Amino acid sequence: MCGIVGVVSNAPVNQLIYDGLLLLQHRGQDAAGIVTQQDRKFFMHKAKGMVRDVFRTRNMRALPGNAGLGQVRYPTAGNAFSEEEAQPFYVNAPFGVVLVHNGNLTNAQALKAELFTTDHRHINTESDSEVLLNVLAHELGRATRGAALGPDEVFAAVAAVHRRVRGSYAVIAHIAGRGMLAFRDPYGIRPLSLGRSAEGGVMLASETVVLEGTGFAPERDVAPGEAIYVTLDGAVHTRQCAAQSRLSPCIFEYVYLARPDSVLDGISVYQARLNLGETLAKRVVSTVPPDQIDVVIPIPESSRPSATELARLLGKPYREGFVKNRYVGRTFIMPGQAVRKRSVRQKLGLIASEFAGRNVLLVDDSIVRGTTSQEIVQMARDAGARKVYMASAAPPVRHPNVYGIDMPTREELVAHGRSIEEVRRIIGADALIYQDVQAMKQAIASVNPRVTRFDASCFDGVYVTGDISEGDLARLNAERPRESAAPDHAD
User: How far apart are alpha carbons 251 and 7 in whole angstroms?
Assistant: First the structure.
């Protein structure tokens, strides 16, 4: 996953984009970048690291202009350590285009071959985002064939991109001297929202929290397959560019990825997580009698809404038993299994008095590898807990994700090929309660009944694009970033 933001304004946007990236930092901590444009020129700064470390005063002063875009990166394809693969990406022909991308192309290798042999374009990195940029640039050239570039030509190019590209992609691009283009894949797997400021500025961002946090009023979500073209004078043009489209957002956004104060495709992330706690409570009662639970403790932070609702319905005290060290990054972004395991106790402190002599129900948003869960259960025991029960607000993660979340191979997933009892023994809990797949879908869809379908492939193995075979899974696994690390639990 990544976080992207783009803006057209009538005032300098460098600080605005920086602030937006800070609000998206949870979506990627590997690298950050900003491009602004002024007088048909692009100004770029990007580097590995957190937003606050990548941009200094001198960098911000070198980013003039009233339009621009930015990205925070969490690599899901290519080389996780390459400075060259930080976004935005730039090509100078035709027109000059910069692009940021959230998602993952499932046919990137085939497209790369096409670009070289047929389109005669050069790809210099292993990033699928550079592939996507060159496909877009090539189609912009074909749509204009040397003529002027207007909305019709832009939308024709996006339609051609949809015909060629497979996978998930939320995209924001700037075309030098002309305007900002944004579009979403025909399934709307990755989120993208549109907002406006009182002064007439237009912003697009991965989450509504960016719009609200920077003074833009959220207007709507970009529809699956839709393109939005904003000229530099602020005029907004929209068109459906996909031959067929069906909204199928990634359900893991609501379970874990997005901030709770965001609204994605009309679904409040916070309310979705409350609902997950409600349905999880029914599963807990059928496994562990409530009179055997003394206290409900969340594993910070994404599980908190689910844990509070679960505790309320069980009639049990809700307590904060873990304290998160906010200066340690999310474990799934840290390279290497040994580093991930060691970092659990670095990032989570423990309030021993909340555990001593009690039967505790720990609530997490999801369990992927099981390494973190195993460490946390042991921490609770070391603090004196009599019994340690574990509840997951999400179902067992049994399948790789190919749409922009760096889930590991099946063999690395603790629930793959194992019963719940076998997973329970691995993590060392006295009981393990998982959410039900259908209950999860219903709980989240109930917030916005217009959303009737989700990509829940990491839970149910159904890939909504309909083009993923066993061979594709093997190939996409080979394209994962070197020394990458998937999320073990939520934060």
Answer: 27
**C-alpha span between 379 and 341 (Å, rounded):** 13
pTM: 0.92
Catalytic residue among 2, 241, 250, 458: 2
Tokens read off for 398? 């049994």
Give the per-residue pLDDT at 177.
95
Which segments of the chain belong to CATH 3.40.50.2020? Answer: 268-451
Which pLDDT does position 489 carry in this prediction? Answer: 44
b/e string for 291-318 if b means 16 or more Cβ within 10 A?
eebbbbbbbbbbbbbbbbbbbebbebeb
Element (H, E) at 388: strand 387-392
Look at residues 431, 395, 443 and name the one whose alpha carbon lies nearest to residue 285: 431
Fold designation for 3-247? Glutamine Phosphoribosylpyrophosphate, subunit 1, domain 1 (3.60.20)
CATH 3.60.20.10 residue ranges in the chain? Answer: 3-247
The fold of 268-451 is: Rossmann fold (3.40.50)
Q: Are 276 and 466 in contact, with CB atoms under 8 Å apart?
A: no
Bridge partners, 196 (sequence order): 202, 217
How far is 104 from 47, CA to CA, in rounded Å?
21
d(CA 403, CA 457): 9
Strand (E) or helix (H) holding 3: strand 3-8
pLDDT at 79: 55
Residues (pLDDT < 50) of the chain are 331-335, 483-487, 489-491
∠102-59-48 over CA atoms, to 5°?
A: 45
265 burial (CB, 10 Å; 0-12 / 13-18 / 19+) is: buried
- Distance (Å) of CA 351 to CA 34, 222, 328, 384, 490: 40, 44, 18, 11, 20
pLDDT at 329: 53
**What are the angstrom distances between the C-alpha of 311 and each of 44, 262, 298, 321, 363?**
48, 23, 10, 14, 10
Exposure string of 14-47, with b = 16+ CB inside 10 Å and e = fewer, is bebbbbbbbbbbbbbbbbbbbbbbbeeebbbbbe
Q: Is 241 a catalytic residue?
A: no
Distances (CA, A) of 392 to 76, 266, 303, 436, 440: 24, 24, 9, 10, 11
* Distance (Å, whole) CA 274 – CA 285: 17
Question: Which residues have a Cβ under 8 Å from the Cβ of 58 and sit 6 or more positions away?
Answer: none
User: Which residues neighbour 206 within 8 Å (Cβ) at sequence distance 6 or greater?
Assistant: 2, 3, 4, 5, 24, 27, 102, 170, 190, 191, 192, 193
Residue 360: count other Cβ atoms within 10 Å of its Cβ.
Answer: 26
